[in-house]
Design brief:
Radius of gyration: 22 Å
Shape: globular
Oligomer: single chain
Strand content: 15-25%
Distance between the termini: 33 Å
Number of domains: 2
Helix content: 25-40%
Bound molecules: flavin mononucleotide
Strand order of the largest sheet: 3-4-7-8-9-10-15-16
CATH architecture of the largest domain: Alpha-Beta Barrel
CATH superfamily of the largest domain: Aldolase class I
């Protein structure tokens, strides 16, 4: 069983890419990611100007993480040495770069190509700092920046998308037209993680980007829309924690996936665990490669108008032995579910087939035949 994938014409030993972040902020960090098994690593965003990190800059809650980091602390020139340090390793190196004008973009793109990276990702979607957040939704600037990067180098260029836009598919068409080889999505979501109510202060001193488990549904929707809109490959990012999440993204059309928050929280070792579980699942299901499942779930994704109005109601397929759960009973706003001696009873006259109980049942005892 091979997990290898062809991504932008580059053969990767597996689809797991470490996303642009402090996890890939230097040659030694990138090396750790590669030794942990990553198929590719995207560098932290490289710019022409170096900014010192503000403090504090990261805060987490149970659904994810907000960060207000900007870019790499290393200069463009310093990145030459860092790339050299990891170049001959068994993984592709993708330089994430940010520039505000097409000529600056061309300058940085040419430099990182000369350093020996395999591809470039345009990191133009950070939702905080110096108006960067406006870049991705300005169609003309997006086209010009992408085209300039594409025309200045001979390696593939991928564009990283923000979810903080309303015209995702139009933007996807623009970068495809400008010659991009792939789209990655999503970057973090503009956020305020919380307020310390005893001190009456926000947890981090400015708006930042939210990442992690909580953003996965938004990322999945972005990947499904983009992969249906364009022909170029897509790299799925956002809240990927385990092999099941990897499969979800691939089934919605992604060719590769990128991980950040789950590696920050659990260490690079998580990559090996995911790869082993992924291989095992594919083997058990009888698939021979990831291509077999890519885009498989898209056929079940309908437009709202296509959904038939059928009188489906929830059904039960077992006895509930979970102590102190009753989530199905408590959350049924129609009062259609009751539990009598571990037996779940659905009142057909009250059930409207909304499906909430089905999604809440950890033991999968409830189902809806749609
Ligand atoms: C602390 C931190 C720093 C990040 N730095 C960058 C960066 O330099 N460039 C970039 O394009 N994305 C950056 N990101 C965004 C991630 O690459 C990724 O798009 C996002 O976190 C969603 O993936 P996740 O839910 O797996 O974390 C950063 C994310 C975090 C949490």
């Amino acid at each position: 069983m091979s997990l290898s994938v062809d991504f932008m014409g580059i053969k990767l030993k597996n689809p797991i890419i470490v996303a642009a972040s402090p996890l890939s902020g230097s040659g030694s960090m990138i090396r750790k990611a590669i030794e942990a098994g990553a198929g590719a690593v995207v560098t932290q965003t490289i710019t022409n100007e170096v900014r010192q990190n503000v403090r504090p800059r990261i805060a987490a809650n149970s659904f994810g993480m907000q960060n207000i980091e900007l870019y790499s602390n290393l200069t463009l020139e310093e990145w030459e040495r860092e790339i050299y340090y990891v170049k001959e390793k068994d993984a592709a190196i993708i330089a994430n770069i940010l520039a505000h004008t097409p000529s600056e973009m061309a300058y940085i793109a040419k430099k990182v190509e000369r350093f020996g990276v395999d591809a470039i990702e345009l990191g133009i979607s950070i939702p905080h700092g110096e108006g960067v957040e406006l870049l991705i939704s300005d169609m003309e600037r997006l086209y010009n920046l992408t085209k300039m990067a594409v025309d200045s180098v001979s390696i593939p260029v991928m564009v990283k998308f923000s979810p903080n836009v309303s015209n995702l598919t139009a933007l996807a068409h623009i970068v495809e037209e400008a010659g991009a080889s792939a789209i990655s999505a999503i970057d973090t979501i503009r956020s305020i993680i919380g307020v310390d109510i005893d001190r009456a202060k926000v947890m981090l001193p400015t708006y930042g980007g939210y990442s992690g488990e909580g953003i996965r549904p938004i990322a999945l929707a972005a990947i499904a829309s983009i992969s249906q809109a364009v022909k170029i490959p897509v790299s799925g990012i956002g809240g990927i924690e385990n092999y099941r999440n990897v499969i979800e993204f691939i089934m919605l059309g992604a060719s590769t996936v990128q991980l950040c928050t789950s590696l920050i929280m659990n260490g690079y070792g998580r990559i090996g665990e995911i790869l082993a579980d992924l291989e095992n699942w594919l083997q058990c299901k009888g698939y021979s490669s990831l291509e077999d499942i890519r885009g498989q779930a898209l056929a079940s994704l309908k437009s709202f108008e296509e959904i038939p109005i059928e009188p489906y109601i929830a059904k039960v397929k077992g006895v509930c032995t979970v102590d102190n759960c009753s989530k199905c009973v408590k959350s049924c706003i129609y009062g259609a579910i009751s539990l009598k001696n571990d037996i779940i009873v659905i009142d057909d006259s009250k059930c409207t087939g909304c499906g909430l109980c089905v999604s809440l049942c950890e033991k999968r005892l409830l189902y809806l035949d749609w």
